[in-house]
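Priority: medium. Attachment 1 of 2:
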């Protein structure tokens, strides 16, 4: 029972992080700020998926988190390439 309480607390903190990241995406003064905020959003999504996998005891969600991490990595590389081309 105590583990579930800790996991719910982690989900609460991850939800707060999502809200703050959306603010940075919306108000970010530069494109790199927005890209970092989007990267944080995907990282938090991976964290939420991992916590959900632990709560439900279903390993398939860890595969989903791995695929999301790979897609996030490729997206970050693409944004970095785009920002480099703009210079």
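Attachment 2 of 2:
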């Amino acid at each position: 029972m105590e583990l579930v309480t800790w996991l719910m607390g982690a989900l609460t903190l991850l939800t707060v992080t999502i809200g703050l990241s959306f603010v940075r995406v919306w108000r970010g003064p530069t494109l790199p700020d927005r890209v970092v905020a989007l990267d944080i959003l995907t990282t938090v999504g991976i964290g939420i998926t991992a916590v959900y996998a632990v709560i439900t005891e279903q390993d398939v969600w860890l595969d989903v988190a791995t695929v999301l991490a790979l897609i996030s990595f490729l997206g970050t590389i693409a944004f970095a390439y785009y920002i480099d081309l703009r210079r």
